[in-house]
């Protein structure tokens, strides 16, 4: 089957996720800058999650440009990833509202790790469908960056109980690495 409906559905779900996250931001009570101070954990959590959701959307967009079709496995794998992404508003609010306490930071990290696992499942399903000689497989390569990111997320979860700031720093570091545009898929599409 064609990939257009999967792309449109994914775009819609991502838009809803971001909308739900922004609706969690509360208007400060007060008219001076001091009214913003109590909201910094919630806002910082939102920024981090917006970036993470945006990274997944960007990678999915680029990735689906290199494939020609999808099948049932790909549909379910995509739904699996979207499920974990759809929890991002809840884990974001949990972390922000609790001022980066260890348990909420660890739960947020678990959600990030499950998103990364979901992305790996999706890439495996697409690889199986299109084969090792496809444009998709060439663009994906060994996906070293994705595997390393997952390892960092998994390491961050227990490290959060040493200091929640270690976990937050790792999440920020991984997001920063992914902010550098990933040109693997763009290079294949251009050829």
Automatic annotation (TrEMBL):
<keyword id="KW-0630">Potassium</keyword>
<keyword id="KW-0406">Ion transport</keyword>
<dbReference type="GO" id="GO:0016020">
    <property type="term" value="C:membrane"/>
</dbReference>
<comment type="similarity">
    <text>Belongs to the TMEM175 family.</text>
</comment>
<protein>
    <submittedName>
        <fullName>Uncharacterized membrane protein</fullName>
    </submittedName>
</protein>
<keyword id="KW-0633">Potassium transport</keyword>
<keyword id="KW-0813">Transport</keyword>
<keyword id="KW-0407">Ion channel</keyword>
<keyword id="KW-0812">Transmembrane</keyword>
<keyword id="KW-0472">Membrane</keyword>
<feature type="transmembrane region" description="Helical">
    <location>
        <begin position="150"/>
        <end position="180"/>
    </location>
</feature>
<dbReference type="GO" id="GO:0015252">
    <property type="term" value="F:proton channel activity"/>
</dbReference>
<feature type="transmembrane region" description="Helical">
    <location>
        <begin position="75"/>
        <end position="95"/>
    </location>
</feature>
<feature type="transmembrane region" description="Helical">
    <location>
        <begin position="35"/>
        <end position="55"/>
    </location>
</feature>
<feature type="transmembrane region" description="Helical">
    <location>
        <begin position="107"/>
        <end position="129"/>
    </location>
</feature>
<dbReference type="Pfam" id="PF06736">
    <property type="entry name" value="TMEM175"/>
</dbReference>
<keyword id="KW-1133">Transmembrane helix</keyword>
<keyword id="KW-0631">Potassium channel</keyword>
<dbReference type="GO" id="GO:0005267">
    <property type="term" value="F:potassium channel activity"/>
</dbReference>
<dbReference type="InterPro" id="IPR010617">
    <property type="entry name" value="TMEM175-like"/>
</dbReference>
<feature type="transmembrane region" description="Helical">
    <location>
        <begin position="12"/>
        <end position="29"/>
    </location>
</feature>
